[in-house]
Amino acid sequence: MSPTAFSLPPHLVQLGFDYVLSVEAGDAVAAARLAPEVERLSGLLPAIAELVVFPVTALSDDTEPCADSIALDEVGVLYLMAVRDWATATPASAAPGIARTIAHFVGQILADEPKDVVRALEVLRHEYVERARVAVDSGVTLRG
After folding, report:
1. Alpha carbon 91 to chain centroid distance?
2. What DSSP letter does each residue of 49-91 carry, written as one string?
3. Cα dihedral sign for 16, 98, 53, 59?
4. What is the pTM of this model?
5. CA proximity to 103, closest of 144, 48, 58
6. In which residue ranges of the chain is pLDDT below 70?
7. Taking the CB of residue 139, how many other CB atoms lie within 10 A of it?
8. Which residue, 71, 37, 52, is CA-closest to 6?
9. Residue 107 carries which DSSP code?
10. How far apart are CA 138 and CA 44, in angstroms?
11. Distance (Å, rounded) from C-alpha 112 to C-alpha 16?
């Protein structure tokens, strides 16, 4: 579970993933349509990055930590810190780059093949929108 609270409502989870998908798919029209709201919410894409990256890189409670798992955890923390700093330092121009880094991470780590990035992002979008809906319905704060 993520160390920071993730309490985005479903429509913002949808917005964040839709923006990442439009950038990855090269859909400039959709990206331009979504960009003003994404840029206004400077913490949105870092939150989406955390949802995608943290479960893959964080130390697991199920296994004993070892040098590799500790290193992976630290790489994930550094990645997320860099994304947050990027979004804070240059919110107007950071969104497309952050979206590309999220898509790249998905392509390299989570997709069955690098060509399946869009499909993997769609699966993640569906999963996290549903988790956000369940959290809202049950009154529980969703954590990544």
Report:
1. 16
2. HHHHHHHHHSPPTTS---HHHHHHHHHHHHHHHHHHHHHHH-H
3. negative
4. 0.86
5. 48
6. 1-6, 114, 140-144
7. 6
8. 52
9. I
10. 22
11. 22
